[in-house]
Amino acid sequence: MMASFVNVFKLVCFVAVVCMVVGAPKGSEAAISCGQVVRYLTPCVSYLANGGSVPATCCSGIKSLYGLARTTADRQGVCNCLKQAVSGVPYTPYNLNLAAGLPKKCGVNIPYKISPSTDCKSVK
């Protein structure tokens, strides 16, 4: 059970990549820590594991993280942090579909697909 929770949590973290890939002014250093990313996305774990209604706290976290990632360096840093967190995690199509739809359900419009194969260098 704990391994399943860890895998879903890692998938939640990956969802944040989507929130980092909107156009914004370029910067030189990422100011968002991996710890911050985890804190903002922890409320999404139950939804990604079980489906159902997206918790308001999950959407608040996604929106907050989206607002914090203002520079290219921020978004790439978050992306790299998340890629490291999800490496080697087996996903089910069910979990991936929930993750892919999460930003839209939270009212965050992003032009990229959520995917474990996201190239963080292409995140602008």
Automatic annotation (TrEMBL):
Q: What Pfam families does the database record attribute to this sequence? A: Tryp_alpha_amyl
- Record protein name field: Bifunctional inhibitor/plant lipid transfer protein/seed storage helical domain-containing protein
Similarity-based family: Belongs to the plant LTP family.
Superkingdom classification of source: Eukaryota
Q: Can you provide one Gene Ontology molecular function annotated for this UniProt record? A: lipid binding
Which ranges carry the Bifunctional inhibitor/plant lipid transfer protein/seed storage helical domain? 34-120
Q: Which InterPro entries match?
A: Bifunc_inhib/LTP/seed_store, Plant_nsLTP
Q: Keywords assigned by UniProt?
A: Disulfide bond, Signal, Transport
Q: Which organism is it from?
A: Carya illinoinensis (Pecan)
GO biological process terms held by the UniProt record: lipid transport
Query: Would you indicate the residue range of the signal peptide?
Result: 1-30
PROSITE patterns found in the cross-reference section: PLANT_LTP
